[in-house]
Amino acid sequence: MTIKVFKYLSPVLIYVGAYFSFTRTGVFTYFPIIYAFAIIPLIELFLQSDPVNMSAAEEEIAKHNRWYDYMLYLMVPLQYAALVFFLFSITQVGISIVDMLGRTLTMGLLCGTFGINTAHELGHRKNKAEQAMAKMLLATSLYMHFFIEHNKGHHKHVATPQDPSSARRAEPVYLFYFRTIIYSYISAWRIANDETRKAGRKIYSLYNDMLRAQLWQLLLVASIFFIWGIAATLLFFAAAFLGALLLETVNYIEHYGLQRKETGDGKYERALAIHSWNSSHPLGRIMLFELSRHSDHHYMASRKYQILRHHEEAPQLPTGYPGSMLLSLLPPLWFKIMHNKIDNLQKENAHKS
To answer: What's the predicted TM-score (pTM) here?
Structure first.
């Protein structure tokens, strides 16, 4: 296993931090949050981006290197072990509210970075076992509908008004949360219902992917309730919700204010590199399994994370994904920086055409 492969094991540091969060008190319970949203963004302010792509030969080798897949698979048992550990830790007698909050925030971070982000990568695979692992991970965030809507809705409608996951210009992230969470869920039901009908099956049957997802999530919640009680169940809901908010914050920054041109009859031009915001900052890339090379992901969704490419024409975020997520939480500052970038992009594209 080469060093290029090994670097993708570094996100496991968050699980190590989670262990301290669930077993210690005070500031240790917040260490994963501090690492992800203070230490990494601060370091990336001083690190240069790395836009270098692999050579064709390197890409071919990496494409068939199974260690990249094994690291994704590893996240499934780690995520469920962390969930169980979390539930035991928050039901300890005498735990303080401060420690309980820190542990819930940590679990929410795990739900967003591994429960959903790793599932995103596995969910694009054609292998049924890998897709099953993606759904298992999404269940820890109670966000299994993402598998349906993202693959069959978002990738079709990205950067158009029809996509609830594409943020519009001047839309604050807090309003975006309401729109994307509600309409993505509705979209997933619509897609699943249509597919069930086309298969000649009844909508309200176990042939409906969306209905099966709800049943699996209900089973998970019921298990937590019967084993750990109502308080743990409510805190699990809180962690899962935080994981969902992390995902939707990433969605917000990935396509903010970018629109594909309409070609007529309600159709749009193909999704190009210019329709996704990218970041080549190395720490954020590694932490999120190259998610920040998002333009290439939309250009070829089946391309594995380790061989995603940098596109020169892709618009670049002001900093890495963690830092940009924090910036988006301050709408006036976010608008000032991003609208200037969007205006410059539009001028460049007008000049080229």
So the answer is: 0.94
SS3 for the chain is CCHHHHHHHCCHHHHHHHHHHHHCCHHHHHHHHHHHHHHHHHHHCCCCCCCCCCCHHHHHHHHCCCHHHHHHHHHHHHHHHHHHHHHHHCCCCCCCHHHHHHHHHHHHHHHHHHHHHHHHHHHCCCCHHHHHHHHHHHHCCCCCHHHHHHHHHHHHHCCCCCCCCCCCCCCCHHHHHHHHHHHHHHHHHHHHHHHHHHCCCCCCCCCCHHHHHHHHHHHHHHHHHHHHCHHHHHHHHHHHHHHHHHHHHHHHHHHCCCCCCEEECCEECCCCHHHCCECCCHHHHHHCCCCCCHHHHHHCCCCCHHHCCCCCCCCECCCCHHHHHHHHCCHHHHHHHHHHHHHHHHHHHHHHC
Confidence of residue 8 (pLDDT cuts 50, 70, 90): confident
